[in-house]
Amino acid sequence: MPQWSEIFAYSTVKVVKIRDARLGILHYIFILVIIAYISIYSIAYEKHYLKTEAPIGSVRLNLMQSHHLTPSTQLNYCAQTNRTELNGFEIYPCVYWDEYLAVYPQIEEYSVFATSRVTISYQGLNNCSLTDSSCEYVEMTNDTTYYIANLEQFTLLIDHTMFAPNLNIQRNAESLPGYMVGPDGKVMPGLDGSNPNNTIGVAGQSDIVPLSTLLTAAGISSLDEVSQTNNTISTRNDGIILMVFITYSNTFSSNLDNIQYTYRVVQVKQTKFKALQTIISKNITERVIWNRHGIRMIFLQTGQLGAFDFQATLLTFVAGLGLLTVSTFLVDNVIMRILPRHHQYEEFKYQVTDNMFPHNHDHERAPIVQNRSTHSYDSLTNVAT
């Protein structure tokens, strides 16, 4: 007959006080490590007591020409200096475009494009009609290429708002402190509002920075460096794409009402940017193609905002209690597998009863507990008596 009481035996917890200082110290070390992990790492550093959310928002961008223009004869990249090249690259005549000409298109969501070089082509129909499949536009004159003078001194107004709907947190940039970090990750100086055209994170003011500051933040010292996509032309000629990350946070201090943002600018490697603009005459027999290359800036809002959440805090402590169980498991394995007298430890930890099934009458005559050892120990660090 199967030993059902043995197969379906019930295992319960037994508390045994083992008088061994080595085990007690080891157990307390594990407990202290777990407490430090919960309080220092999980709570203080990782802030797992918070409910977090990535904010969403909007960005308004407005590029303006500088009021202080440098003469083209003093700009090394302009042909008006009577030079033919700069850093080994061909240079072109410079034109002074304001924001209405330099920016294309005028309105974009989360991005802005500033023209640094334009090639203008005049084209017309070759005495034919577009109803004819062989009809095509031909060049009417030679293409002309220009650089946009003082592009680096154009100033960019950045007005952004953020909203975390689940946390009910909403702010505008004018009400928040902010910073711009350089390619080394350190805060860039000189943006404290002392210069009204170079301001970030000043209360009550919109952020205004020249394009030269954004280029510096991306690690670009000059637009006249070699292009990453074509080593025969300059970056000014070829164009670049800059990703501008606006990162919001309120978890940098214990006061969750303190919210700040940072700008981080990254150049997209091995990438140029161009845009074609077509101007067509009334009868579409003639057209002008503006082949624009320049700086395209794309703004992305990121970060994490947090608010105290009781459930998140409770889950953190429950996870800690689970780790306490792990510490007990580890000490038990040290007792029964590693220490020299592990067999004696095991006799104290585990006991097996007689068959307690009601139809078994032997339990009325036999002791309930089967003792595995007849030895007694004052302390397991001493010799058995």
Sheet-strand content, in percent, reads 25-35%
The end-to-end span amounts to 42 Å
Instruction: Determine Rg (CA atoms, Å).
Output: 37 Å
What structural category arises from helix and sheet content?
alpha+beta
Largest sheet: 10 strands, mixed
How are helices and strands ordered from N to C? HHEEEEEHEEEEEEEHHEEEEHHEE
What global shape is seen?
elongated
Describe what this molecule looks like in 3D:
The protein has 7 helices and 18 strands. With 385 residues, the chain is α+β, with helices and mostly antiparallel strands. β15 and β16 form a beta hairpin. The radius of gyration is 37 Å and the shape is elongated. Residues 372-377 have low confidence and may be disordered.
Give the SSE layout.
Layout (H helix, E strand, L loop, with lengths): L3 H4 L13 H25 L4 E4 L2 E9 L20 E2 L2 E2 L3 E2 L3 H4 L8 E15 L11 E3 L4 E5 L6 E10 L4 E4 L5 E4 L25 E4 H7 L17 H4 L1 E10 L10 E8 L6 E7 L5 E23 L1 H29 L3 H8 L2 E2 L15 E2 L15
Parallel strand pairs: 5-8, 11-14, 13-16
Antiparallel strand pairs: 1-16, 2-9, 3-4, 6-7, 6-8, 6-16, 9-10, 9-12, 13-14, 15-16, 17-18
Helix pairs in contact: 2-6, 6-7
